[in-house]
Amino acid sequence: MTEHFGNDDAANTLQWYVMRAYKKELAAEQALSKAEGWTFFLPKRRVWRVRHGERRQVLVPAIPNLLFVYATRRDLLSFKQSCPYLQFAIWRKTTGSIYLTVPDGQMQDFIRVTNAALAQQTDILFSSPEGIDLKRGTRVRVRSGELEGLCGTLLKLRGKRAKRVVVMLENVAAASIELPPELIEPI
After folding, report:
1. Which of 70, 102, 134 is the last residue of a domain?
2. Which of 27, 30, 60, 116 is the most buried (most CB within 10 A)?
3. Quick one: which H or E segment has residue 110?
C-alpha cells in the first residue's frame, strides 16, 4: 500500500508507515518508547555475541535500517523534528514520490510471525520481496497453535530443507518461519 506526497486526506489517517533510521534503529526505538502514545514495531532476531569473553544471545534489529510506526503522517512529521535520523521510506516513481505504508492486516501477520519466532526461539528469515518467487508457492492458513488463522505462502527456500510459511509486506520485506506440516492447511 502506498500514499502519494500531496494527499492531504491521508495526512490525518492512522496507518503503518515504513521508516528508515540509518544505523540508528535502536536509538529510534528508544526515542519512540520515551514519547508516549506511539505504536511502533522494530523486527528483531537473536544472535550470539561475545562480550568481555562471555558468549551470550542478544536481540538485534533483524532488518537493517527499517522500522514501522503506526501514526498519522502529520504526527510523524512533527516527531521527526526531535528525531532527525528517522526518515520516511519513499518509493520514487515516474509519476511522483510515494510514502511506503503497510496495510494493517499484513502488518499484524508480520508482527505475529516475528514475535512467535522470538518466543519459540526458532529460526526466522527476513528478506527483500524480490528475493522470493511467490508464483511457486501455495496459499496456506495455520490451523492451530500460536499463529492460528495466519495466512501466508508455503515455499521451499534455497539452502533450507524444510518448507516455510512466508508473510509478505508489499514492496518492503518478507518474513518466513518453519512450521510443522500438521499445523498448515491449504486455502
Report:
1. 102
2. 116
3. helix 104-120
What local confidence, expressed as pLDDT, does residue 9 receive?
A: 65
Q: Looking at residue 121, what DSSP letter applies?
A: T
pTM to 2 decimal places? 0.77
Whether residue 85 is found in the same domain as residue 151: no
Scored b (16 or more CB within 10 A) or e, 47-82 reads eeeeeeeeeeeeeebbbeebbbbbbebebbeebeee
Predicted confidence at residue 60, as pLDDT, reads 86
- Asked if 49 and 94 sit in the same domain, the reply is yes
- The grid coordinates of residue 48 equal 550470539
* Beta strand spans in the chain (E): 2-4, 15-20, 39-41, 44-51, 54-61, 66-71, 87-88, 90-93, 96-102, 124-127, 138-142, 151-156, 163-169, 173-178, 184-186
Say whether both 128 and 90 belong to one domain. Answer: no
Q: Which of 85, 99, 78 lies closest to 18 in space, CA to CA?
A: 99
What are 29-77's pLDDT values in tens digits? 999 988 888 899 999 888 889 988 999 988 888 888 899 999 999 999 9
Nine cell digits for residue 99: 510514502
Same domain assignment for residues 17 and 61? yes
| Co-location of 94 and 155 in the same domain | no
Which three three-digit cell numbers place residue 173?
Answer: 520485506
Asked if residues 162 and 154 have their Cβ atoms less than 8 Å apart, the reply is no
Give the three cell numbers for residue 104. Answer: 494493517
